[in-house]
Amino acid sequence: MKTMKPTILIQLDADTQPSVFDGVVAVDAGVEHLFRHGGIVPGQVRDLVFGALFTRGGDDLKRTAIFVGGSDVAAAEAVFRAVKATFFGEFRVSALLDANGCNTTAAAAALAVIEDAKQRSGSFEGTRVAVLGATGPVGQRVARLLAGRGGNIAVGSRKLDRAVATAEAIRDATGRAVRPFATPDETAPARELADAELIVSAGAVGVTLLPAAVRKGLKDLRAVVDLNAVPPLGVEGIKPTDKGTERDGVRAWGALGVGGTKMKIHKKAIQELFTSNTKVLDAEEVLALGEGLA
Question: Rounded to two decimals, what is the model's pTM?
Fold first, then answer.
């Protein structure tokens, strides 16, 4: 009787030191052997991937997979593209991109607002959602995922040109129009968010994007998600541990409240890699896995 080969996850990290966090999640997800490589640039990828492709064959090939991570999402995206470009014919293994938790965090945030809308009205289609800090890696993905699910999405940045570029990229990816807006000063959010039903704050650490006074004045607002766990929070007046918590008549999720779902999705995505040798998991695929956990 043939014995199955152990699972091997090859962690290609754009940082010099591969992420300990990602390594721990991989082990907790059941990976038997973890090969960790740091400081990876696209030019190094081919030989590393060839090592994964030419050592096993047949059904055993699905027992090897690749995880691409790192704190610099753009650098990791370049590595991920190089990984996919190396595959040919049947010579491929499954691969996941989740640099700095960009895809799993975005999927968890998207699920929170999608499920909130469905509970309230039975459908997410057409729900008005504003994403603050939308030009960052997580914000872009949240907006793209929600647009892809039929939301009426607005993307905000302190600079309008950056918001416009993000809106155009999301439109190209999803085929849906996205409204860009700028928040250059503290008066802008009240004006730009006036009709928002749901708000996701995905800005940088240390910047409050939605003051409490503005939030409390938004008459159509039903739910808010803040992905920043470090004070000052992105949304003033909610707590990182909030998980569907009622705050001033609005349901709130903080970073830690979303984090539990993010961890479940992360582990599920790792496990999914070993179901075949053809999985390529980016934001949309990761969101679909999260929906399957509900």
Answer: 0.95
